[in-house]
Amino acid sequence: MITALTLTDFRSYASATLRVGSGPIVLHGPNGAGKTNLLEAVSLLTPGRGLRGAPVAELGRREPGEAGGRAWAVAAVLAGADGDEVRLGTGVQAPGASRRIVRIDSETAQPGRMLDYLRPVWATPEHDRLFSDSRAERLKFFDRLVFAADPGHAASVSAYEKALRERLRLLTEAAEGKRPADPAWLDALEARLGEQGAAAAMARARALGDLQAGIDARGDRPFPQADLGLTGEAEQSAAMGGETAEIAAGIVAGMKASRARDSASGRSLFGPHRSDLTAIHREKNRPAAEGSSGEQKALVLNLILAQVARLKTMPEGPESLANSGANPVLLLDEAPAHLDSRRRAALFEEIVALDLQAFLTGTDETLFSDLHGRGRFVRVDAGTLAPSDD
């Protein structure tokens, strides 16, 4: 659990410290006050680019007239279940640096180590039409859910994408007459694509099954239920019990068969990177993409709540959160938007019932009235933080 969050020259904050406890934290204030910046800061306490996906060099605060952002830092104090404190920090030491550093208890560490302590899960207004957004954005969103419970998934996806870029470079250079593609190197790259793609597909299929079970277990709630699916051949094979080696061989065969087509189009048209997350609104029996922003948001929130419940109840094992001490932290930007009063109340009730530390933002404090007495309210304005419930 985060007990204190400190920002230094981060986005709109010159210097600010937020002291919090368990349960929900409501960040309210006008548009442009810096509420989402606080969520982004928490989201950077995990590997990756955070909830906005912004380059590291863009995160530093800028004064008028400054060409680039300053060196910045985000630091958090965490209280463990045994009462011990852990200090996480990330940032850059020089303005414009493109790679952030991570420190745990003042010692430099690999970014992946932060997952031993914290697993942020987030939804932003960009997800309000997730199911009618681009396929790539849906897959990215789903991969983040997979990664939160299975950190090795990120390494598989990264290795797959690196090999995919190299393969496409060889094919396009050959198509442009620059140099012939080396068949042996293509074979090696496609073998790597098969191995890493199969690992990613297996992880996605496992996560999909767990999340669907979580949605089903939630029963008749104010949030609509979705029947989830994955369109990729590799993921579908994994869901039906296919072996990793069999799935890898299928990816390799498909890549070989797609060489000419990929070379001509300048795109990689086959493989697990082309997979898509699908959802059917169960009650209405129609694709989620056909729903309104409010319906899509409610479906996404139900999926997110199933995810955090899954993270809190993962069984014992080498990668379990129970063993690692990590806890999910929920980040919801503009949570009340597009939700009616019944669903807002239900959302807040579930956050409290799950005993989640959750950071929620909104412009209108009154929309969070059901959380008064059960959460911390903080007024955010022009890069300043003022508790409004003391």
From TrEMBL:
- Could you tell me one molecular function GO term of this UniProt entry? single-stranded DNA binding
Report the locations given in the UniProt record: Cytoplasm
Major localization listed first in the record, in broad terms? cytoplasm
Enumerate the transmembrane spans.
none
Q: Which GO terms describe its cellular component?
A: cytoplasm
**Residue ranges of domain RecF/RecN/SMC N-terminal in the record:** 1-370
Which keywords, in A-to-Z order, does the entry hold?
Answer: ATP-binding, Cytoplasm, DNA damage, DNA repair, DNA replication, DNA-binding, Nucleotide-binding, SOS response
Question: Which InterPro entries does the record associate with it?
Answer: DNA-binding_RecF, P-loop_NTPase, RecF/RecN/SMC_N, RecF_2
Tell me which domain of life the UniProt entry assigns to the organism this sequence originates from. Bacteria
Among Pfam families, the record links this protein to:
SMC_N
Q: Which GO terms describe its biological process?
A: DNA replication; DNA synthesis involved in DNA repair; double-strand break repair; SOS response
Record-listed ATP binding positions: 29-36
HAMAP family referenced in this protein's UniProt entry, alphabetically: RecF
User: What is the purpose of this protein?
Assistant: The RecF protein is involved in DNA metabolism; it is required for DNA replication and normal SOS inducibility. RecF binds preferentially to single-stranded, linear DNA. It also seems to bind ATP.
Q: Which family does it belong to?
A: Belongs to the RecF family.
The record's annotation in PANTHER family points to: DNA REPLICATION AND REPAIR PROTEIN RECF (PTHR32182:SF0)
Protein name in UniProt: DNA replication and repair protein RecF
Q: Which gene encodes it?
A: recF
